[in-house]
Design a protein that fits this description.
single chain; 3 helices
Length: 132
């Protein structure tokens, strides 16, 4: 069953690609390389809501995306998180971190985001699409 992407995600993220289970979207925040994985299933708010096959597939896709984020952004540290307090639709954040980023070592949520410029957005989307 395909799932509609929450309108909050449509407003502040950009589609990169679709994997077997998840849509991959870039969060529009130039402060951090940040993607989300959104399983294409209806009425799912937690990982435990997925069937066991989809749970395993989700983990494989998280690992796959994590490896790509490390390679593309040349980082050793990722934040991989499932929260969903603001948008309950199941989604997994994968954020490339660096000791030189603006909030290190604190969470990315302690600062206001900064949208990409049109030129930077095109560049990072192209980079991610090539990587995937």
């Amino acid at each position: 069953m395909a799932n509609k992407v929450n309108k909050s995600f449509l407003k502040d993220s950009h589609l990169i690609t679709n994997l077997k289970l998840c849509s991959i979207r870039l969060i529009d925040n130039a402060k951090f390389p940040w993607i989300i994985l959104i399983p294409k299933r209806k009425n799912i708010t937690d990982i435990s809501d997925l069937n066991s096959k989809d749970q395993m597939l989700l983990m494989k896709e998280i690992v796959h995306c994590s490896k790509l984020m490390k390679k593309i952004f040349k980082t050793k540290k990722l934040n991989v998180e499932k929260i969903g307090n603001v948008v309950p639709q199941l989604h997994i954040h994968i954020i490339a971190r660096s000791s030189k980023d603006s909030t290190w070592p604190l969470s990315v949520w302690v600062t206001k985001g900064k949208p990409y410029s049109k030129q930077s957005l095109k560049k990072i989307i192209d980079l991610l699409k090539k990587g995937f």
